[in-house]
Amino acid sequence: MDEYVIAEGDSFEMRVSVVDSDSLVASSICQSYNDPHIRTFDGRNWENQRLGEFILFHNRLNHYWVHVMYQTCVSGVTGATCNCGIAIRKNNVLFVANFCDARIGWTASNNETNSNRYIEGTFCDDTHMTVESSGSSYKVTLPTGTQISFYYNTHNGTTTIDGIAIKPSLADWKTSSGLCGYLDGDKDNDFRTRDNGTTNDDRTFAQDWKVSGESDVSLFGEVNLPDDNTGVTRFCKCRDSATPGDSAAVNECNINTATTLCSSSGSASFFNSCEGSARRKRSASELLLRQRRASHIGNAIAKFPIVLDNDVDSEPMSMSWRNGWDESSATETCRQFLQNQKFLEKCEILDGMKNETADGIKSCVEDIKLIGDDRFMQSTSDTLSQSCRLTAIRLENLTKTSASDGAPGKTMLDEMLDLDCRKNCSRNGICANGSCTCFDDFEGDDCSIRRSVPPIVSTRTNPGLCQSDSSTCTTFYISGSNFASENVTCRAIQFTVVESTYQLTSNNVTFPAVPMSGGIGCFCSLSQSVRARRSVGTDRPNGLFLSVSNDGFMFSNNIVIIVYDSTCYTCRTNPISCIIKSSCQSTTSTTTPSTTEAYSHVTNGYVSSGLIAGAVVGGLCGVIAVLLLTKAIASLKQTKKYSHPVSEDDMVNYYRQNTYWEHIRGYPSDVPSSRFHPNSDENQEKHFQRNTYWEYDRGYPRIGRLATSSRMNTRFY
Hints:
By secondary structure, the chain is of the alpha+beta class. It has 4 domains: 21-316, no CATH class; 319-419, no CATH class; 457-584, Immunoglobulin-like; 648-713, no CATH class. The chain is built from 13 helices and 36 strands. The strands form 10 sheets. Strands 3-2-1-13-12-11-10 form a 7-stranded antiparallel β-sheet, covered by helices on one side. Helix 5 (353-371) runs antiparallel to helix 6 (377-392). Residues 240-250, 255-268, 276-299, 589-616 and 637-717 have low confidence and may be disordered.
């Protein structure tokens, strides 16, 4: 080998070629947002106002999929659909956010069917994907560096996923398929079908990537995925200067060098059905949720199979302007709204961002026309911000300081992210340094959760039935909206079901809940003492009135939960009832005598005649005695009614024993004497007794106190 020595003072030329492979995908992003507008990786915009499950993205070489589910946004509106679910699959593991109704169709009513509301992962560690969350926003990173982000919103009790964004990696170059299109820099060939053909018809393209029961595997509901034993080499690492939770702590990717994924800080909160032993370090709430798995917590989460109506393949109807809107007013409203977003104004330094904003205005106008109001206007802004953020944090030139002399200071990226706050803090806080400082009484990443207001729960998302023959029925997942992130309280009142009636068996019991992030629900796990009380008479169905509170004072509506043995009973929660099955009638002690009692007088198949005669005589005597006693009691009551009117104290004691008055639940704000007068309206009195429950021993108001001071100084549960 020849050696060349360069002497001091000599000079030479060296040509260095720098290839930035990231530039191929730097500006690429696929989006499905609102109702739903879709942008392919190469920038082709199109509409998919259709129903059902679709393959949004598939990498055929690295074996990962992203599926979405669309349902109607508003009952009766047959021209607009919304993202209600997203499922991310890598090999045989799955991460799902499911807010979809149990029945999907153009004529299906959103208010008359059960609805899912859960977020779940089926993996034990970071081998297949990492998940990070901030409130209602989630980011999933695959081993190749591909990122899937989404956020959800709740409007009028319905939760939708308003923004899904997929930021591809180099591993997706010329290997992508699905509604996101073929990633090769040419948007004219984005509509590539499964057989590698192309089409320009959006209906043909959409239907080709729709999940059908014949050839595809649905990723929603009970899923049993095969393991193809295909490993994916990791090509990404965290930036050296990144700190946990930093928005800039993104993956740096090199397609030629294998490395490791960023390690999640454990801030994500979702139900994990992992059955394996490998676990990374988790937050306290995640550890508790994982611990619940041993108690069959999965059975406590409401998962409703999604049934598609026969009309799901029908094309959407065209909609006309209504509710006072027209194209001119909608355009001006959307333009003004987006122009007032400070973060989007900063984003205009990015190439193509002005065009994206113009497309966003068009989408916003289309939303108003389809839905009839401006509910998706903020979502359009959030989606544009999401696109800007995912692009900006991967551009090296934005990490330079803005100081002309190169002195240390904020980078251009820092200045942009300082203005990046979800929903502009919902006008309930101040945006500073990229996060919301919420006003008193508000919390959440977007300040949308109000602590002084109880969580909003619905029977649509909480089935209320737990089968004791297949689950321990000790932990229950209560879903809804406006759940605080900490200090959530559960309250339980126990009862026993006797055919079509129920009997209360306990005072109310309060205990801490384990809240989920994003304000969509919490877990209520019964204490050992409560379980012991409930175990008495376990052969008979029993249940709970469960409610939750953000502050320990104001509680939500009750959710009815019935625990029963499904091999012997058929139960329902509205109305509360349990019917014993014929196969169990001879063995259930609550409805028939024991075997010894029933057959103690049976000898060789014959019954003693003396026993029959004695039973007849005894029965007649008993009937006569009951009739005489009933008449005497009636006579006494009649005399007391007219001669000695029922005292106010007597009626108060009666209500204290048989009713539970929740002042905060909208029941009577005062205690007029007519409430306790024997001549009060019978219907109002029965209504009052049915809907309230006043516990005398819990320190509630007494008549002797002033009503005002009583309510001010008494804790109502």
